[in-house]
Amino acid sequence: MNNIIKYIEQEQIKNYKKFPSFRSGxxxxxxxxxxxxxKKRLQNFVGTVISxxxxxxxxxxxxxxxxxxxxxxxxxxxxxxxxxxxxxxxxIGYVRKSxxxxxxxxxxxxxxxxxxxxx
Length: 119
Known about the structure:
Structural class: mainly beta
Largest sheet: 5 strands, antiparallel
Low-confidence stretches: none
Number of helices: 1
Helix content: 10-25%
Distance between the termini: 39 Å
Number of domains: 1
Number of strands: 7
Strand content: 35-45%
CATH architecture: Roll
Order of helices and strands: HEEEEEEE
Radius of gyration: 16 Å
CATH topology: SH3 type barrels
Mean pLDDT: 87
Shape: globular
């Protein structure tokens, strides 16, 4: 049964856009479709990836965190979603953990992530 589900998921993934592979600690720029009334527009969301769930699945989602006016904003995106127009990697971060929930308590220079130079 599991093999059948994996096969169906792989077929569905082929119909979606190809996004770059990213990891926790990377800074992404995501263009999202926002609907306001009858109008539809693109909006940028730039932040650091703090977690990725079910990486090799159709149900894959990732959490992005950014600071806006000193307030932390986290947003969870399904990877294969119609609202995501494009994903661009701004910086590749060097971290040793896959879940960066400890960034929630840090602010300022303490919340910085080392940048990977050779990629």
